[in-house]
Amino acid sequence: MTPGQETQTRKCYLFNPGLIPYTDGWLWQRSLVNDRIHYPNLHDVLILLEHPPVYTLGQGSNPEFLQFDLNQTKFDVHTVERGGEVTYHCPGQVVGYPILNLRYYRQDLHWYLRQLEEVLIQVLAVYRLSGDRLPGFTGVWLQGRKVAAIGIKVSRWITMHGFALNVCPDMSGFQQIIPCGIADKPVGSLAQWIPGITCEEVRPHIARCFAEVFGVELVEA
């Protein structure tokens, strides 16, 4: 860190690529992380996108949380390096991939997870909805329904993966899994409280709340 850098607002590139295949987003993240491991002065990145229907399992996920045979399935399934159990992505869900160098923030993974939750809680507050944390769990709940899942990977304090906010997805895909391994807490979406809500209108609120919570200046890329 150069003299005086700590007093400057850190820049963060914002990408809004729309709907892209999961593997494309995954490879993109890994490339960005690798670049920042070798060149730590590069700006941070926030990617906000949607994926076609896909199931992802974190490292060490329990296959019992799948309601289908992993060896005989028509579903797109990937095991990835993030923490957490199985989750589902599909159109109508805003997925956020922050690529941050935590050396410029706080080298504390619990702090980082709580910050991601805070971003989403502030987004819900825009719509006068009160998002909750549940002790012992990661994510954001709304009136007992989990509306946002979080799973991260950190390499040399560079983050990847991130959060998924259910805005207006087809919820039927969640019936094939026990989301995040939590059997007794249902999944929800913002559309259940705000009919007609779209990802297009929510993305700018996510970007603004992210910038405020992390104290960065977003630069559209």
From TrEMBL:
<dbReference type="InterPro" id="IPR020605">
    <property type="entry name" value="Octanoyltransferase_CS"/>
</dbReference>
<feature type="binding site">
    <location>
        <begin position="82"/>
        <end position="89"/>
    </location>
    <ligand>
        <name>substrate</name>
    </ligand>
</feature>
<dbReference type="InterPro" id="IPR000544">
    <property type="entry name" value="Octanoyltransferase"/>
</dbReference>
<dbReference type="GO" id="GO:0009249">
    <property type="term" value="P:protein lipoylation"/>
</dbReference>
<feature type="site" description="Lowers pKa of active site Cys">
    <location>
        <position position="146"/>
    </location>
</feature>
<keyword id="KW-0808">Transferase</keyword>
<comment type="pathway">
    <text>Protein modification; protein lipoylation via endogenous pathway; protein N(6)-(lipoyl)lysine from octanoyl-[acyl-carrier-protein]: step 1/2.</text>
</comment>
<keyword id="KW-0012">Acyltransferase</keyword>
<feature type="binding site">
    <location>
        <begin position="162"/>
        <end position="164"/>
    </location>
    <ligand>
        <name>substrate</name>
    </ligand>
</feature>
<dbReference type="InterPro" id="IPR004143">
    <property type="entry name" value="BPL_LPL_catalytic"/>
</dbReference>
<dbReference type="InterPro" id="IPR045864">
    <property type="entry name" value="aa-tRNA-synth_II/BPL/LPL"/>
</dbReference>
<keyword id="KW-0963">Cytoplasm</keyword>
<comment type="similarity">
    <text>Belongs to the LipB family.</text>
</comment>
<feature type="domain" description="BPL/LPL catalytic">
    <location>
        <begin position="40"/>
        <end position="218"/>
    </location>
</feature>
<dbReference type="GO" id="GO:0005737">
    <property type="term" value="C:cytoplasm"/>
</dbReference>
<protein>
    <recommendedName>
        <fullName>Octanoyltransferase</fullName>
        <ecNumber>2.3.1.181</ecNumber>
    </recommendedName>
</protein>
<feature type="binding site">
    <location>
        <begin position="149"/>
        <end position="151"/>
    </location>
    <ligand>
        <name>substrate</name>
    </ligand>
</feature>
<dbReference type="GO" id="GO:0033819">
    <property type="term" value="F:lipoyl(octanoyl) transferase activity"/>
</dbReference>
<feature type="active site" description="Acyl-thioester intermediate">
    <location>
        <position position="180"/>
    </location>
</feature>
<dbReference type="Pfam" id="PF21948">
    <property type="entry name" value="LplA-B_cat"/>
</dbReference>
<comment type="function">
    <text>Catalyzes the transfer of endogenously produced octanoic acid from octanoyl-acyl-carrier-protein onto the lipoyl domains of lipoate-dependent enzymes. Lipoyl-ACP can also act as a substrate although octanoyl-ACP is likely to be the physiological substrate.</text>
</comment>
